[in-house]
Structure prediction request, 225 residues.
Amino acid sequence: EAQVTQNPRYLITVTGKKLTVTCSQNMNHEYMSWYRQDPGLGLRQIYYSMNVEVTDKGDVPEGYKVSRKEKRNFPLILESPSPNQTSLYFCASSRQGGNTGELFFGEGSRLTVL
Amino acid sequence: QKEVEQDPGPLSVPEGAIVSLNCTYSNSAFQYFMWYRQYSRKGPELLMYTYSSGNKEDGRFTAQVDKSSKYISLFIRDSQPSDSATYLCATISGGYNKLIFGAGTRLAVHP
Prediction:
């Protein structure tokens, strides 16, 4: 089954404790991206990657890091989480060359930073 | 001003009603418009995609773009309880698949 898998789905942590949210896709997609979803603000892009070893900032990259060492994986790293990073996070992927705006999303990771 | 504005609702309608969901956008250069549907505790999934102006129909769903007024709409005919979800409008800004989303409208269709 074609899918984007995120882990963990739910996480409660404390300020300053480094964490990683993993994302893996099995569709051989070149493009991957991370979004955060907050009430009233919709989905905002954090980082994206056009291919292996190619990453770039989205609209709200502060406090986040990413890496793309393999095509299928695109982890999101919070080096020192703060309460304003409490949010619902989505990883998404799509094939290169398409321009229909079709992103395939994971099921989301709900993060609470105390 | 946000690039894509969407009324968050919630919108509650009886089964069988016609639903109209709307967004406005600010940049006349936008040409690709999408509607995503997001069920509770799930990720968004693409529902419909349109290019430039005009209508596109898919079963009970019709997407409409009016570039002169920078207005995009999604109509749902004969709405069903299974249509209860959050609907997000989106457009592509600049680079490849860089989507800008509206805040989403929560729809509840009650039997």
